[in-house]
Description:
This protein is mostly beta strands and 142 residues long. The protein is 7% helix and 46% strand. The protein is built from 1 helix and 7 strands; from the N terminus they run H-E-E-E-E-E-E-E. It has one helix at 5-14, and strands spanning 33-42, 53-59, 80-87, 90-97, 102-110, 114-123, 126-138. It has a 7-stranded antiparallel β-sheet with strand order 2-1-7-6-5-4-3.
Amino acid sequence: xxxSVPYILAALLVTAVVLPAAAADTPHPQKPGKWQIKTQMEMxxxxxxxxxxxxxxxxxxxxxxxxxxxxxxxxKSKCDVSDYKIDGNTVTWTINCPKxxxxxxxxxxxxxxxxxxxxxxTVGEQEMQMKYSGKWLGECTK
Length: 142
């Protein structure tokens, strides 16, 4: 379990990718507001199942305009989001975090008030998958 801790931490840094981002001219399928996000990480060969993580986030119209907002906010992570595409209600991307030796591809499909998705990642030589789900809770409150 101790050997997998760095992988878990790196994956949690990349979790922010599920936050909104969009191509400049394409409307984003996610609506702004307060979202409850659940993530579940799976790693082959992990002796213990990692419990899901749940958190809430306020997504603004401004957030939905910039793919770089999807990168983790930790400036030391220096992740790059590329190949960001919106096709109807589905968003796909590629992420590369050289400092954490992390690469991955992701996909999220939105409905009006929810979404599901996943990101396949490699951290060093360890493969893992993050599964996402989101539920719209209403307007953001300050």
